[in-house]
Design brief:
Layout lengths: L4 E5 L5 H10 L3 E5 L5 H9 L2 E2 L3 H7 L2 E4 L4 H11 L8 E4 L5 H12 L4 E4 L2 E2 L1 H7 L2 E6 L2 H12 L2 E8 L3 H30 L3 H9 L6 H5 L1 H6 L9 H17 L5 H17 L9 H8 L12
Parallel strand pairs: 1-2, 1-4, 2-3, 4-5, 5-6, 8-9
Antiparallel strand pairs: 7-8
């Protein structure tokens, strides 16, 4: 039995390595991206096929993957290509999108006998490259069963969360927890540094203690103390995910004052720093408020 042809729409920092994982697993891939020339360059480098438009990729594919910045771009792609879809296709919406938008798009596709699941990812660019992403999947079990071999080529963990949109709800809430932990850790480092503690050593203690988080393990030294701020995930995208999480809180009438404050600080960071910043620059808002900058200790002169 031949593997399905996959139309991969969105070959950005996450999408491109994910598509490469599919190629390594033996899938045929036809790539498409809104940036002119990106899909052709990907095809020339990897041996994949390329399409000049999303409808062209969708028309040829059996399985369609969308990996785009937000639900706005996903909706634009799917609605423009609706006449192109054919019965029996399946859409794997892997963006960190808004659950309500995804459910609406799923209903429109179902009218054309096209299945849809949502399957946002966690793990960043490094895990996208080596195919070890964690996936949070939502949709009917039969559709998830059908999508699992494709998802498994890009991940080591697939969590079935619930119906369509549930994966994206979980992803937004996961990123809320991650952002809040990041901000709390940065504030602790700033307090400690002002007290006279070595922030690098503080991170080591956190990682050996109950204060350990993904941020203390993989972000504080690597991107903040180093001042590199180049993790590969945008601050504006983090704000988008926090906004989705707060929308869920409002829709479910769940008080979330701490989460709301975290989201507002992220919005302030975007407004102050401008577009195109790495999400680890979220630390800068706390540094500005504190009037201090985190850094590795200065080596004493010999």
């Amino acid at each position: 039995m031949s593997l399905p042809l996959i139309g991969f729409i969105g070959l950005g920092r996450m999408g491109e390595p994910m598509a490469e994982c599919l190629l390594r697993a033996g899938y045929r891939v036809i790539g498409q991206d809104a940036v002119p020339g990106r899909a052709a360059a990907f095809a020339a480098r990897t041996g994949a096929m390329s399409a000049v438009s999303a409808p062209q990729a969708i028309e040829q594919a059996d399985t369609i993957i969308t990996m785009l910045p937000s639900s706005r771009e996903v909706a634009a792609v799917i609605e423009a290509a609706l006449p192109t879809f054919r019965p029996g296709q399946i859409v794997l919406e892997m963006s960190s999108g808004a659950p309500d938008v995804t459910k609406s798009l799923g209903a429109k596709l179902a009218e054309r006998d096209v299945a849809m699941i949502d399957a946002p990812v966690s793990g960043g660019v490094s895990r996208a490259k080596d195919g070890t992403l964690a996936i949070m999947a939502g949709g009917p079990d039969d559709d998830l069963d059908r999508a699992t071999p494709v998802l498994a080529a890009m991940s080591t963990t697939i969590h079935r969360i619930g119906g369509l949109g549930a994966g994206q709800a979980m992803k937004a809430l996961n990123n809320l927890v991650s952002a809040a932990g990041f901000l709390a850790g940065i504030e602790a480092l700033l307090v400690g540094q002002r007290f006279g503690l070595d922030p690098e050593r503080m991170v080591d203690v956190l990682n050996a203690s109950t204060g350990m988080t993904n941020s203390s393990q993989k972000k504080f030294k690597q991107f903040v103390l180093s001042r590199k701020f180049d993790s590969g995930f945008g601050l504006d995208l983090m704000l988008k995910d926090l906004t989705i999480a707060l929308d869920l809180a409002q829709a479910t009438a769940t008080p979330a004052p701490f989460s709301a404050h975290c989201r507002e600080l992220a919005a302030s960071s975007v407004a102050f720093l401008g577009a195109g910043r790495d999400h680890t620059e979220f630390a800068r808002i706390s540094e500005i408020l504190a009037g201090s900058e985190l850094h590795f200790p200065t080596e004493p002169e010999a």
